[in-house]
Amino acid sequence: MMCKVLIFGCISVAMLMTTAYGASLSSEKWKTLQTLIKDLEILENIKNKIHLELYTPTETQECTQQTLQCYLGEVVTLKKETEDDTEIKEEFVTAIQNIEKNLKSLTGLNHTGSECKICEANNKKKFPDFLHGLTNFVRYLQK
Q1: CA of 132: how far to CAs of 9, 28, 54, 68, 135, in Å?
Q2: Residue 79, phi then psi, degrees to nearest 5
Q3: Is residue 122 within 8 Å of 58, Cβ to Cβ?
Q4: Residue 100 and residue 88: Cα distance in Å, rounded?
Q5: Domain extents for the chain?
Q6: pLDDT by residue (tens digit) across 86-128?
Q7: Dihedral sign of CA atoms 9, 12, 14, 20 in order
Q8: For 103, which of 29, 51, 70, 135 is 20 to 30 Å away at the CA?
Q9: Helix, strand, coil content of the chain in percent (nearest 5)
Q10: CA dist list (Å): 7 to 20, 35, 124
């Protein structure tokens, strides 16, 4: 009887820890995050050529799902604005398209807070700052 109680207690603690801190990432999600980092590094080379201001979330840890949705929406805007820009090479357009695709695939991650602000409530920042924020957010998701 005592053994059953001990086993049940251990299972309960494991379930609570998973709920509190989120389940570990699958290898597929991990690879997606790695790919995102590589594509974001490609954009580092042109960050000063893109003259856009984009909403940049600040509550990244408390509002993971909302932050992800906001960054995704802003990447869609970035894609639309750069598609016809002759200064931006195809390599960078492809990186932006890959970032959009990979952010979409991550939209099932948890950690949505109840007091999260909508994307438009965040400040608009110049592209280099937006890129820095998105890169830090993706690295946070890897932990």
Answers
A1: 43, 24, 12, 14, 5
A2: -60, -45
A3: yes
A4: 17
A5: 27-47+59-142
A6: 777 888 999 999 999 999 999 765 555 567 889 999 999 999 9
A7: negative
A8: 51
A9: 65, 5, 30
A10: 20, 40, 51
